[in-house]
Amino acid sequence: MAEAPAAAALSCPNCGGTITLRAAGHSVTVACEYCASILDVSQPQVRLITRYREKTARLAIPLGARGTLDGIEWEMVGWMARSDSGYPWQEFLLFNPYHGYRWLIEQRSGWSLGEQLTLTPTGGSRGLVVDGEEYRPFFANGTARVDDVVGEFYWRVRRGDVVRTDDWVRSGAMLSREADDREVSWSRSRWLPRGTVEQAFGVAGHGRPWPPLPHQPSPAYPFLKRAMVIAAVAIAALILGAIMNAGGRTLWQGYADIAADGREQQITVGPIELTRPRQRVRVVAEVPALSNGWVDLAYTLVDRSNQASFTASKAAERYSGRDSDGAWSEGSRGASADFAALPAGSYDLIVDYKGNKWVDPSRAGGGSSFWNSAPDDDGQPDWRRDSTAPRVEIAVISRTGTGFGVFFVMLLLVLAPLGVALLIHAQFEHARRAESDFAPTSDED
Prior knowledge:
Blueprint: E1 8-11, E2 18-21, E3 29-31, E4 38-40, E5 47-50, E6 66-69, E7 72-84, E8 87-96, E9 100-107, E10 110-116, E11 122-123, E12 128-130, E13 133-153, E14 162-170, E15 173-179, E16 184-192, H1 196-201, H2 221-245, E17 248-257, E18 265-286, E19 293-303, E20 309-323, E21 326-332, E22 334-357, H3 383-386, E23 391-399, H4 403-434
Antiparallel strand pairs: 1-2, 3-4, 3-13, 4-5, 6-7, 7-8, 7-13, 8-9, 9-10, 10-16, 11-12, 12-13, 13-14, 14-15, 15-16, 17-23, 18-22, 18-23, 19-20, 19-22, 20-21
């Protein structure tokens, strides 16, 4: 283990205040915490670089304060206020005799922990790569100026010092390049979750940064990732459940003959037993011989215990022909009518029905009306008369599925939190990227 540097005390040649040099042998300049003058401590004889008599600004973390980050105890030894074109931030220099220096960076109440890099990033497909992680460009050709300084540093620092800056980001981290006429340095800073610095150094908490910092992770993104997985599983389960519950149990099945003369008819079937407290029932009708005509179908389910009745109706209709565009057809020989929520009980089903014929006006002898239920009145084909024993086949089915409405509501409940998270994430990312020198223009949007 490397030998820890010793602390040393010296007297400020400007105000006489006693200054504790916490990293003696490492620091080359120190700013007096009493009068804020900049001193050269690289030689045994302390030299006054800049006299500064204004009162030192009150620091969020006092000089000498100690706090633990990532399990390491750090001492705050220096502070700088910097800015770039009116874009201010603070940098607190932390020191540990066994782990060296780190930067605690505060900007708009957001905190990051930075360290100097000893390697040069390499080029990636869309930015720079460090330790296998790619950073995308965010700021370019900036100019960072030292506006104020207090404490000790491992390089010569003065107010008004200026460096050229460029920054690249990835979620949770920023890569920075600073250069002047003498050297180029690289640093990497890591976003610290809210409350980390407050807990470590006992400083007062502040609000959330807004607009977000360039490398600040979206607060909605962790929830969004989990929500997408949960939503995918939930939707798959809903679809699977709908498929498994589709169809139902047949409660009654039979048929009724259709009169060739088009008169109204009625049949009563039952009993139809419904055992669940609330039961969805579908009546399915099929008319195999139906051609150029329709069948009116009216259903009444009557509860035998109290004569309560429930009605539904549906027509089966099927048409075909030929016109200037060629052959055409429409409609269906089948029709279904639904009862939404019938109470449990023993029911009779009354079916009122009537077969009808459609008269094609394009055919000779089509008569004066399209609709004609009377047989043998025009010489045109009549499905009721021409087919052998025309009939309507009826099935009463107990439906076990939840229905489309319930399925849609459940789907909406699953997707609603995901949609809210997406909106929050999109708003956050839009505000974050808006500050970038590489933000898309309105034309690119």
